[in-house]
Amino acid sequence: MEPELPTTAAPAAAPSASATAAYAAEAAAIACLGTGRYLSMEKDPAAVRSTISLAVAADGSRFASTHGDTAVRVWDLPSGLLRATLHGHPRTPWTVRWHPAERDVLASGCLGQQVRVWRVDTGACTAVQAFPAEISGVAFHPAGDVLAVGTGRRAFLWRYAAPDSTPVEVLNAIHPLSLVDFHPTGELLLVGRKNQRPVTLASQFTLKLDVHRFTRHDGPSDEAVCSGQDDEGRHERPGVTATNTGGSSDPSGGMAAWFGPSVLTIPAAVAYNDAGVAFSPCGKMLAACIPAATDEETGNGASVAHAGGVTPAAPSDSGEAGYRIAILSLCPSSLGNCIASTPLDEGHTSALTNLCFSPTSGHLLAGFSFRPSNPHLRAAKDALAAAVAVAAQDDGNALPSGPSGAAEHCVVEPQGATAHVEGDSLETPASPQPVSATKTAEGSSAARPAPPTVPVVDIFSVEDGLRRVHRIHAGLRVTGGGVHTIHDEINCAVFASQSGADIAVIYGTQQGLVRVVDGGQQAGSTTGMTVEK
């Protein structure tokens, strides 16, 4: 018998007046997003190395970031002041999540096979647990007392606050896991496993997503827990006790039986980590980047999102018609149906880093990291090189310093260009062309266009069929050796808000920076921070 779905994910009803007002306030705040500011850390960004993961506390008062220097940093909002730097992980923390109710508690998992739970206000690590492999994802159950942990090919549940608690294995998969996440009701658990597909110029790295039923109770279930089956027909094992983490029994009295069969399967989704797929705060939607092909009869994405735990064959490496960002229904009557979607070209598909719903569930953020081989970045590089050549002819001015403050032979363009977009196309529009003044040989000022920027964050209106309404741009850099990079090559971007009227976008970069884009302070503000140009 097919498992029941969460009763709270009811069919969509007409929005209330308060919900409509909250969406309108959020839309207005997004339209007013400013130029952004970089937050000041206690060390040079080069020593920070990279900003990997971001998470915002449930009340919107602070956010956490993880970095290549093994630290977890916590920042206050909206001030952007650094509140705490948490040390203890042996390797880079790959994932971080906040407790669903306590803004003082967060959990992080690192590449050194370790999960830590922290008290931010004291800086204390209150629990630490070693696992069999690198940690790919952690997630708090909405009740706050259990952590789901993805490590290697296995998923565990851990009562982190219980004395001498032993993590319990609930899934032993064929392929490595990349994410675990709880539905807002706690009645579903999303697991993402890597698809083992050849990496060629024509292929795209994807995950197989399974949304499992999750039922909490005091003892083992009276009904048998169905086992999943991988793409090759081999069975994966649920409910196995984690004997290799130090325990030989399930001390919780049956946590393994909480993990039920899959109710929704997406065979291929573009996602590189636990930020690549998102549940909506309202619990009615799931955002994912999926193949563009749909079922010809229904047009609702049934060929790539199938209910009932039956997994159709994954798309082949050749002949795919591209990918799209899709909003899939989690309502019982329309489970897996595509509510809205927007196509992605090859450059944006390969650059997609993460998806994130806004607090009202009315908007969706998509972050993009354009690597050197990306066609969009190549075009921007050519334009930048031409602009640099013009600048070199116009004057011999000294070149500015880099983000670390040390002088370097480069040109760094303004980092804060944003645009409110009315169209729904994902084709890159003409980049804003800020004008800079240049001293000529005669001493007069001459205006010349600045080099182009690259869009790194797109914001879509879910209420309006995923129409893009805003874009955030990043500047480019060219070094003396001819190496071109995006100054803000992002790893992750998130919404942050205490109310619809003060929404912000936060993102972390490959260069170890953290940037906040909001509707208040603009680039150049120095309230509690420095702006690195």
Chart the SSEs and their pairings.
Elements (H helix, E strand, L loop, with lengths): L16 H15 L5 E2 L6 H4 L2 E6 L5 E6 L4 E5 L5 E5 L6 E6 L6 E6 L3 E6 L4 E7 L4 E6 L6 E5 L2 E5 L9 E5 L4 E6 L5 E7 L12 E8 L22 E2 L20 E11 L8 E2 L5 E7 L14 E2 L15 E7 L8 E7 L1 H6 E6 L5 E6 L6 H20 L15 E3 L5 E3 L14 E5 L5 E5 L4 E8 L5 E8 L1 E4 L4 E3 L3 E7 L7 E6 L4 E4 L16
Antiparallel strand pairs: 1-36, 2-3, 3-4, 4-5, 6-7, 7-8, 8-9, 10-11, 11-12, 12-13, 13-17, 14-15, 15-16, 16-18, 18-21, 19-20, 20-22, 22-23, 24-25, 25-30, 26-32, 27-31, 28-29, 30-31, 32-33, 34-35, 35-36
- Report on the biggest sheet: 5 strands, antiparallel
Structural class: mainly beta
Strand content: 35-45%
Average pLDDT rating:
75
Identify low-pLDDT runs: 7-11, 219-235, 237-248, 295-320, 397-417, 421-447, 521-533
Q: Over all CA atoms, what is the radius of gyration?
A: 23 Å
**Total number of helices:** 4
N-C termini distance: 60 Å
Shape: globular
What percent of the residues sit in helical stretches (DSSP H or I)? under 10%
Strand order of the largest sheet: 10-11-12-13-17
Number of strands: 36
Please provide a written account of the structure.
The chain is mainly β and 533 residues long. The protein is 8% helix and 37% strand. It has helices at residues 17-31, 45-48, 346-351, 375-394, and strands at 37-38, 51-56, 62-67, 72-76, 82-86, 93-98, 105-110, 114-119, 124-130, 135-140, 147-151, 154-158, 168-172, 177-182, 188-194, 207-214, 237-238, 259-269, 278-279, 285-291, 306-307, 323-329, 338-344, 352-357, 363-368, 410-412, 418-420, 435-439, 445-449, 454-461, 467-474, 476-479, 484-486, 490-496, 504-509, 514-517. The strands form nine sheets. The chain has a five-stranded antiparallel β-sheet with strand order 10-11-12-13-17, with no helix packed on it. Strand 35 and strand 36 form a beta hairpin. The longest helix has 20 residues, at 375-394. It is globular, with a radius of gyration of 23 Å. Residues 7-11, 219-235, 237-248, 295-320, 397-417, 421-447 and 521-533 have low confidence and may be disordered.
